[in-house]
Amino acid sequence: QLQLVESGGGLVQPGGSLRLSCTASGSSLEDYKIGWFRQAPGKEREGVSCISNQVGSTNYADSVKGRFTIDRDNAWSTASLQMNSLKPEDTGVYYCAAYQSPWTLCSRAGTEYNYWGQGTQVTVSS
Questions:
Q1: Which of 83, 78, 110, 73 is nearest to 13 (CA)?
Q2: Across 88-101, average pLDDT
């Protein structure tokens, strides 16, 4: 059974950076597509980014393009989300998630994912 644990959240000023990590146990991440999601208070969960396993293709929400970078290290069963130029609207609980699919590209739709971490809080505030 795949288990995911996020880390790296915290409080940062606008314009600052954070790097979130997702560590897998119970199974290798090699066969899974990985996504990062966030949920702000009172808002729906948003698919921020995803990365496929076959070719490493990535996908980003328009709100984070050019600022966030998703990456994965199959050898260490980890994934990361580098977040730069953070804005107050980036505040929320960030989750990593994983799913298996024969398709080459990944999806940012949460309904595709069947393994989820517990989340890590990111607060962007001065």
A1: 83
A2: 97
